[in-house]
Amino acid sequence: MLQKFIFHKHLEKGEKIIYVVHKHWINILNPTLRLAFFGLLIPWSLYIMGFNTFIFFWIAFFWSLFAFLHFIYDFINWYSDVFLITSMDIIWVEWSGLFKNAATRMGFEDIEGVSYEINGFWPTVFNYGRVNLKSVSGNILGLYPARNPKQVELNIMKYQHQYLRSRDMEDAGKLKQLLSQMVSGHLRRGGKSR
Prior knowledge:
It is built from 5 helices and 7 strands. The protein has helices at 2-7, 26-48, 54-80, 121-126, 149-193; strands at residues 17-22, 82-86, 89-97, 100-107, 111-117, 128-135, 140-147. Strand 2 and strand 3 form a beta hairpin.
């Protein structure tokens, strides 16, 4: 439900989100720790340790409120940088602020390869890394740090295979229909000339 609300503006009519690749939670860890330390622990510790005046209470309250709003901004930024695997394409969405976001589409038929890279001790332990999509034209779309990059690679290849297979079946059906129309048209013309 939340994904439909946030990402619906990037979808075409009739397009559905099949799979969403978010960045790993490790990417939001630093802003969370900053909020906890600077936004909650320090102001409220000072208030409890002796600065318990009426004015300092409101200073600590508004300081914490501002820190919380900054965290919400960081959380939305983290949540909104994704690969959307849809029924038609893969969309790379990058959110850079309240009034600035970008989306890049890559069709399943344009994907030449999918790769992932896990580099380092912590990425190996927490299972995150870079996922790259390479297009036929040579462009590369990357998402870092993507959680469970091997599974992401397998899912992208699976959905690409399903899409291409259904498109091939659809094309074969259209070709059969065209051939049957040509044959019936030829038989009708052949029957009239006798």
